[in-house]
Amino acid sequence: MQTLAELDLPHLAMDEPSFGQNPLPRFAEARKQHPWLATSSLGIVITEHKAMRELFGRDDELRPPYKDVVALLGQEGTTWGRFTEEQLISLPVDKHKFLRDTFAAKFTPRFANQMRPLMQATISRLLDEWVPKGSFDFELFASHFPISVMFALVGAPQEGIALLRDDLEVIGLAHSYQLDLFPRIQEGMVRIDEFVQRIIADRRANPHDGIEDMLDLLIDTSDTGNVDHRQLVDLIMFFFLAGYDTSKNVLTYTMYTLLDYPEIYERCAEDYDYCRKVIEEGLRWFNPSTVARFVDKEFEYRGVTFPKDQMLFFPLSISGRDPGSFPDADTFNPDRVVDPNNRQLAFALGKHMCLGQYIARAQLQEALHQVARRIKNPKRVGEVGWRPFFGAWGLKGLPIAFEGA
Ligand code: HEM
Questions:
Q1: Which atom of ligand 1 is closest in space to residue 235's alpha carbon?
Q2: Is the minimum distance from the CB of 222 to ligand 1 under 6 angstroms?
Q3: 3-state secondary structure string across 68-98
Q4: Which of 279, 357, 368, when mutated, tests ligand 1's pocket best, judged by the most ligand atoms within 8 Å of its CB?
Q5: Is 100 in the pocket of ligand 1 (CB under 6 A)?
Q6: Mean pLDDT on 385-396
Q7: What would the DSSP string read from start to end of 300-350?
Q8: Pairing of strands 291-295, 304-306
Q9: Closest-CA residue to 368 (of 292, 272, 284, 287)
């Protein structure tokens, strides 16, 4: 058995601002020195897709990092700090299980399918507004998509979107550990809290006859499942936050990729089932998250001891490009045969696996299909930038010009 300190591990400077520009060669290089582990300034990095899957299978020995991250950033007692410590993902095991079981039973593929007409109408409205421009920053366009859809799913008036979009944009950077952003992050958190309290109060005052949208489902599930008001507010806030830059960055990167594959893009406009495959391959090709955990109980894995309180990083974002798990990993192929025991990890795995994954997939499929129908012959007309690798990684800006339809 070896300790981590005894291993000769490569170092990945994941906190460097330039790291997000082109991380794949750095991971490939790191795997030459050690096939599945590396160091970083904050903790140990798992660099192999298979090891990530296997370690997520042992999540009873790991704990989510959020309490520790709040302390690390000196944000205890603030609005963001309280929320981050008490949101679904950071709750103690029994409380998490209670809430997760209550809601997971309802967040099914069937429910996501029922929401598709609402999603379609929202995306179509958004495109009516943007397509006549003929050229725009696709990232900016894509940033309106998850929030507009989420507003539609909770029946909120679309006028409030602009302000909350700016709030979500900066809150999304919280996990990239930039301390100077926190005054603005706190301001945004207060506004989102007030907004969620207001939509719940309005709906309780004017209830629908049955379950017509996601807000009905969330309120009904929390009332019948004895979930208290604060937990319900936090969960809805979490939905806004968890679904925002994840979905935006995936849609933006998918568009960026498809600029190099015009035949695939054009087929997405005609063939809806193919469009689903493109999104699935897109989630393997690129996804935004690097998930962190602490070791809660010392354990051994592949002959290495992981001591209690060791911080671990799972860069899910690059895991789908690991050639050890995916043949021709650097070829974008929507027709690739997916091994059900070795799927991509965009939504993580185990007890915190994304609760919104069916909603996320449905809205991405609907968006790509309609974008391909309305934005014809898109071309990149300027440089792209990159977001920090930690947190929600992705493109910063994607200027395109196109023919509108
Ligand atoms: C492409 C879009 C999305 C991606 C890539 C994504 C990714 C993830 C990942 C990697 C996790 C696990 C985090 C961890 O283990 O620390 C997660 C958890 C979660 N996601 Fe998503 N997500 C997306 C969209 C959404 C949407 C739209 C919603 C809500 C409608 C949502 C709700 C959640 C919730 C509630 C959890 C926590 C589950 C738990 O702790 O039990 N996500 N997501």
A1: 35
A2: no
A3: HHHHHCCCCCCHHHHHHHHCHHHCCHHHHHH
A4: 357
A5: yes
A6: 92
A7: EETTEEE-TT-EEEE-HHHHTT-TTTSTTTTS--TTPPPPTTS---TT--G
A8: unpaired
A9: 272
CA contacts within 13 A on the Cβ side of 336: 25
* Model confidence at 292: pLDDT above 90: yes
Would you give the DSSP letter of residue 289? Answer: B
The rounded distance, in Å, linking the Cα atoms of 57 and 212 is 36
Q: For residue 249, what are the contacts with CB-CB under 8 A and spacing of at least 6?
A: 288, 387, 392, 393, 394, 395
Q: Above 90 in pLDDT, residue 349?
A: yes
Protein residue whose Cα sits closest to atom 31 of ligand 1: 356
Answer whether 359 contacts ligand 1 (Cβ < 6 A): yes
Ligand 1, atom 20, residue with closest C-alpha: 354
Residues 145/248, Cβ–Cβ less than 8 Å: yes
Which domains, from first to last, does the chain contain?
2-404 (1.10.630.10)
Q: Is the CB of 289 under 6 A from ligand 1?
A: yes
Cβ of 348 less than 6 Å from ligand 1: yes
**Residue 380 DSSP SS3:** strand
How would DSSP label each residue in 178-228?
Answer: -GGGHHHHHHHHHHHHHHHHHHHHHHHHS--SS--SHHHHHHHHHHHTT--
**What is the Cα 147 distance to its own chain's centre?**
13
pLDDT tens-place string over residues 82-129 = 999 999 999 888 889 988 988 888 889 999 999 999 999 999 999 999
Q: Is 368 in the pocket of ligand 1 (CB under 6 A)?
A: no
Angle in degrees, 0-180, between the axes of helices 93-104 and 229-258, rounded to the nearest 10? 70
Mean pLDDT confidence for 202-219? 93
The predicted structure's pLDDT at residue 324: 95
Tens digits of residue pLDDT in 249-274: 999 999 999 999 999 999 999 999 99
Average pLDDT on 22-34 reads 97
- What predicted TM-score, i.e. pTM, was given to this entire model? 0.94
Res. 275: pLDDT tops 90: yes
Q: Which amino acid is at 166?
A: D
pLDDT in tens, 294-313: 999 999 999 999 999 999 99
Cβ pair 248, 352 in contact under 8 A:
no
Residue 239 Cα to ligand 1 midpoint, Å, equals 8
Local structure of 401: helix, strand or coil: strand
The residue among 59, 32, 60 whose CA lies nearest residue 48 is 32
